[in-house]
Amino acid sequence: MSAPVEVVLSADSAGQLFNCAVFDPHSGSEFLSYRGGNTSSRSLTVLNGEYILGAQLGKNFINVWEIQRKDQLQQKIVCPGIVTCLSASPDGLYVLAGIAEAIYLWEMSTGNLLAILSRHYQDVSCIRFTDDSSHFVSGGKDNLALIWNLSSVVQLDSSRTPEPRHILSRHSLPITDIHCGLMGPQARVATASLDQTVKVWEISSGEMLLSVLFDVGIMSVTLDPCEYFLFCGGSDGNIFQVSLCSTSLSRDKTFQTDSDGNQVFKGHRNLVTCLSVSMDGTLLLSGSNDETVRMWDVQSKQCIWSINHKGPVTNAAIIPAPANMFLADSHPAVPLPRFSRHLNPSEQGDTTGSGGVCLRLGANTQVPEGTYLEKADELYSLMCAVTDKVSGEVHHCCQDSIITVSRILARLSRRRSFV
Amino acid sequence: MKSKKQKRQGDFQKVQLKVGKKKPKADNATNVNFKSKAIHLPEQLKHADSGPTTNRQLDIKDLLSKLHHVNSNIKQGALVGLRELLSGQPTLIELHASAVLSEVAALFTDKDGSVRAAAVRLLRFIAQCIPPERVAPFFPLLSAHLTCAMTHISEAIQEDALRVLDVLLEHYPGLLSQRHTVLLTNFLELISQKRKSGTGQDKAGKGAFSLTISTNRKVTAQQWRLTVLLRLGSFLQAVVEERPLEEGVISRIGLGMWAGEKGSVTPVDVSWEEHAFGKGKIQVFENSGAVPSPHSAYRLRPDSKAGGGMNKELCSAETVQGFAGTLVPLLLEIWVEAAGGDSVQTDSDHLLSAEAMALMFQILTILQLLRRLTPQRDQQDILDAWFRNSYLTDFKHHFMKNFPYGLREVARHKKKADGKRIRQQVAAGTVAGTNVEPLALNVTLCQVMVTLSLRGQDHIEAEDADWLGPIRVFIRETLSNGGKLSLKHLAALLEVVWRMIVTQRSRVVTDDLLQAVFVQYQQRNLAVSVRTLLLRFFSRLYIQEQQNHPHIARSRILACWLASLPVQLVQLGSRNPQLSAQLLETIHPAAARGNKDLLQSLQKNACSIYDPQEGCVVVLPVESQKRLVQILHFLPAFPAELLACLSQVCNTGRVSASLATMLIRSVHLRSPLSGCSSSLQDVPVKDVDYLSFFFTTLTGFSSEMLRALQDTDEDGLLPSSTLSPLSVFATTLEQFLHHWDIVEEVCHCLNTLGSRAQCFDVIQNAINKNLCGLVVVPDCVCAAILRCVPRLLDVNFLPSDTLLHFLSDCCLSMLNLLLQLEQSARKRDAVWEACFAALSTVPRLLRLVLQSFHVFDLCEEELPVLAQILSLLLQHTQLRNHMMANASLLQHIIQDLTHFYGGETREQWLTDLLYCYSVTLSGHRTNMGMRDIY
Fold it and tell me: Start-end of the WD repeats (chain A) (predicted)?
């Protein structure tokens, strides 16, 4: 059997059989399971295709598994508080955790705590990265969603508090879920809220593009990769499909009636807590508080399979299968560092001397020689030298060609004078 | 012979004329004894295209040509004539606009005063008739003539030029503001002259211009300057206001400062129902397709389009600095003269004459406007810093020396001189600016000075303390002395307070100033607009600045203000919905942010806010109701009394059913039973309270109301009988349907609870305890119970006998009611649905119902009713299997019925019943296997 392209990763809050498990998206058969503890909602994430990170429900640590050693809990990262949501950047360089109303940012290469962002007023409920890891969006129980620029958060010196790029404040009840579309900083973000609306925003401008009002509170939201459809999981167990680009010129839609029935996925009996769409946009995965995970066919809106869990499903996602997952003898390329619990470890005095060199632009630079400006000057002079050389050669060529052209012109004018 | 002679004599007879006799008439005298009438020609024949004329038979061409006449009287006459002609024939203005405007403009510099006055009058008239976009092509000409007049050597012409400017400012501010490059220097030259280069070098720092004093004007130099400065002020105002707003720059000055903001992309707004039924088509990608929207903060390359054109020049800080560099020294000089000229007594330097005050007010207004010329925030900061570096010492020295200023009382004996002065002022046309209140002057002074205080740096704060101190004292006293302030002054003062709070970053200052504002806020009988302004000030302060400035967040006054909001909401009631909405706009985010003071106060007042009779949640409009319901989500705890209130709010029907379901949902979500809130330490809704809330909401009637209902003797009561064991109280249709919607939601919430068996047990006990003994039951309660029980019933759970008996009673009464309901299809459907669900789902219920049909106890009239009920049950195919299970019982009843009736003629109802019965049984015979199962 060849390795699958995509797998389903899901976890429930009971954790009787396993903490989280990997399933086949087409048949629903279980591949692997990872044991130990249980995971709180929106806090299961795969780091760099090598580790699985999941925040323990109601406790202040994060469980870590190496992705190929399924049964063994590898490590526990102790955090300053109960982790409410967790997200690893797609490039595997940073990890974000929402702890109470603050967002903690760790750098994976060193384990340093780079920033504590406390712009939310209440617990953070969800954090999502854009696909290029340049921005992230955090939503909280204070009705706010904040769009942050990762580089501005990382590079700021400690004297200034980092500011979010945009503050999305149009929801009137706590935000339950966020989905970031593709295309990096030009992506669109969908936010779901208990105020019965789902809103679509633009990351670049922070403007709201769309607001859909439902009859029930919305607990989860996702977009398909093409962003044709918006899937919204309601608190009554229905999943609503909103078509984002209904063509007015509908030659092929004349025989298809858009009635209520074919836009709702019916089957769950309780809150739909998580939604995810496969890469090709044909499969929709949903996890619910009624302890089932269901896979749906988007086109026909039928349930393909369902898996019973032992408790309310907290996380369910379709993810591209990590390369290491099915190779039992593989090892992560980078060992997981110790996560520091304080900002600026050098000041705290509990540095372990991990031997790693911290390369950060900004005030906290640990490499004293040469400021950034000097380096830039150096680089500039180097580039100038190269370009001078090149342009000198080019100049020679040009001169040659100019001479030949002028000769030709002279000949031409002579001929004209003869005529 | 004789006859010949006689004849001759006869021919030549001489008439003797004698004295005293009348002269005889000559034979050939003409008789003039006739009368004739003259033909009167009022006008000469005209050519067809010559157009209308004035009373003096002059058409527009004549008039225009007369404007070039040497004699000034004729020119004036022509101007008057033009005005008369044009006012009679407004269409002519459009036709001849170019000619008229150019000719009139040429007369701005006429040497005769009356001609100029007439020209201005005509211009004013024309300006009223032509919109700005039509004048735009001629405006370069007009402004050229205006410039010419302003720089004219004759002072009288200069003065009249200002009137022309007035007219243009009034009607074409946008067009005029584009000419600022020329006009601004003209203004300078009106009150000053260029220094000669030598002297300019000597007095370095004094600017290149010096004030002029001309002795031969009719007015004093001060008055003249005042008139010029007035115009300069209004001109700058026009420049500021007419500037096309840049992206993302919201003019947050003055009254608009605390107004709402608007996004630049109009979002698509749909609701699910519309979308699902194909009405609301969504096209998100038009808003931002492959090309990012122009409002995006990303700039890949600088804008290639040079927008703005001429206006660009005044936007940057450098150009404004250049202009201000010449203007501000002049203004300072004027200030010194105005202040110094007045100060006769040294002890009352701060008392000014009205005229000096007006002048100073103008100076400060112009300084303020200068700062506003740059729209961008960063540019404004540069400009502020520049002002501070260049002029702080001067401003401090001159402006703050005698601050705050007051109006000098004018002694009585000076009255005559005053009258004269007033007349002069009228002549100079400065009526508008002369009556300036000292408060306005002081407030503007504060505004100007406060912009000089920079934010952030600590060492500067210490420096500034000496001049910010008096300003602070003044503001505090003005706000807290109990007087009512006008909207404009208050807005300006609040702006100053805002700036001081943000820049000074000290908790003492913040509390000090906010205390003063709060005193103002607490006054009674404020006008609604003033109240709204203060409210906006506080709420913006809380919402915008709190995060960046910890000293604001910690402010005691702000906390106090937030805590007072729920109380105000309760007190306000339904008197002013707008103000209530404004209050809610602050309460909602503050509650969402978990502000402790607000939440405590909210908790304390929750019962009165959510009171079912006169609480805000029922008296306010829908939007506010919705917010109030959403605020519920953030309440720290739900005590039993509050839940009782909420349950009644849901059921009284004064909030819509959708809002009531929202309310129920948010209570459900806050309860740990729903499994949404993970934290275990704080329990907002106790489980007991939660279940009793849901049960009360389910019944829709509190226990007191039900008890009261037992004794009443109302019309809506259907008496109990054998067929209807409970006496049914029929509710109105609206109440029934409202309650029906709520029951639906309650059932859904209860359904999602963790353990269904336990939940059902609780509900069963509650029904047994509260409802089973009742004699009179409202129909909606019956329907609700019948609907709820089958939905909550677990397969493995056996309901108790008491419950089953009560259910059968309910069911029978409802079926009886069903037959009497003709008017409303919806109600009938709902009742039937409930009965049907209960009968088909709850085991043994159908048997109990059938057993309770005691045919022999019925009277004659009730027999058809029973038969109808039976046939109704028989007709329903889904119930058929259940009927089969009780076939013997059924047969028994029908036998009794036919036997007991015993009438000679078989009535229709009996025929129907027997038919239904036979059909059901025949179907049953074919499915004999089915019978074995039961």
Answer: 117-158, 189-211, 265-306
